[in-house]
Amino acid sequence: MAYVSAEARREQLIEAAVRVIAREGADGATTRKIADEAKAPLASLHYCFQNKENLLLAVFAQLSEEMPVSADLSEAEDASLGHALELCLTGAMRWSVENPVRARAMIEVTLWAERYDPELSVGFYATFLRSSEAILRQVDVPLSGEELQSVLRVTMCLVDGLSLQLFSDGDKERTLRDTATACAMLKAFLNESARETA
């Protein structure tokens, strides 16, 4: 049997966990099923992660790094908040459409965290909020801090809802069309808010 370094084994186990979690949910993803999926000894999973909880946290960390929470505004003619939100929402949903197994695993792990440790789940969302807010501060934000936080939370709800719809019906084209509709609604809201404060 070929030697596998601890780091390589860790990556194998995380990838296997993503597939098992997407297929069976976080609760159904036992350490044995994950080890079998990775074609690795169960002992190696415990060596690398100690327990299932640590592995699920590693899965979340990996997927959080992959999911785009960014917007390249350097060459944008329209560097408005609406355009930045559109880029963020569209980028996240394209990632979900192109990586449905990974997106499903992300939602499953988030739901697991909410059941296992609600504060951990809050922390997951807080991480995304901080990242998104830092990006959006690159543009002129015509909202108060509280209003911007509300718009970001609604945008995250749109990502979650559109992703769940994608998992339910598997219609990638419709998901992207619905994403464009969601972006138009966000922009209309921001335009209306700007008129009210003018």
State the total count of DSSP E strands: 0
Low-pLDDT segments? none
**SSE string, helix = H, strand = E?**
HHHHHHHHH
Largest sheet: none
Query: Count of DSSP helices?
Result: 9
Mean pLDDT: 87
| Backbone structural class | mainly alpha
The portion of residues forming beta strands comes to under 5%
Q: State the distance separating the first and last CA atoms.
A: 70 Å
Q: Please state the overall shape, judged from the principal axes of the Cα atoms.
A: elongated
Provide an overview of this structure.
It is a single chain. With 198 residues, this protein is an all-alpha fold. Helix content is 80%, strand content 0%. It contains nine helices and no strands. The protein has helices spanning 6-28, 31-38, 42-49, 52-66, 81-98, 100-116, 118-136, 145-169, 172-197. Helix 1 crosses helix 4, helix 5 runs parallel beside helix 8 and helix 7 (118-136) packs across helix 8. It is elongated, with a radius of gyration of 19 Å. The N and C termini lie far apart (70 Å). The model has no long low-confidence stretch (mean pLDDT 87).
Summarize the structure.
It contains nine helices and no strands. The chain is mostly helical and 198 residues long.
Map the helices and strands:
Layout: H1 6-28, H2 31-38, H3 42-49, H4 52-66, H5 81-98, H6 100-116, H7 118-136, H8 145-169, H9 172-197
